[in-house]
Design a protein that fits this description.
The protein has 111 residues and is mainly α. Helix content is 76%, strand content 0%. The protein is built from 2 helices and no strands. It is rod-shaped and about 155 Å long.
């Protein structure tokens, strides 16, 4: 069976249309793949940034907790203040207000 020129033209035109459709499909697929990969890159980058922020928050929280525990230990180990120490602290903080000293000597005599 011999192929006529018309059959060959029909075949060539169908083949060209098929190739063109495949190229368009391939181009669309590559565009989709490119946009998917760029979105995936942005998503991973955003997740990494959030991880860094969370690490910073965790470090700050750990630092505050350690300072709080250190203050609790310091308060537990310190002795209570006596009246003389409080008077000194008051006079250092307010130098224009000197603490009042009461020197009480009883004038009573035993009989």
């Amino acid at each position: 069976m011999a192929a006529s020129a018309q059959d060959y033209e029909n075949y060539a035109s169908a083949h060209a249309a098929r190739q063109q459709g495949m190229q368009v499909g391939l181009r669309n697929f590559m565009d989709y793949l490119n946009s998917y990969m760029s979105n995936e890159y942005k998503r991973k980058r955003g997740i990494n940034m959030l991880d860094l922020y969370q690490q910073q928050i965790d470090l700050d929280k750990q630092k505050q907790l350690s300072e709080y525990e250190r203050n609790l230990e310091r308060k537990a180990s310190s002795k209570p203040l006596d009246l003389a120490t409080l008077a000194n602290m008051y006079s250092v903080r307010y130098p224009w207000k000197q603490p009042i000293h009461y020197d009480f000597t009883p004038k009573m005599k035993l009989r």
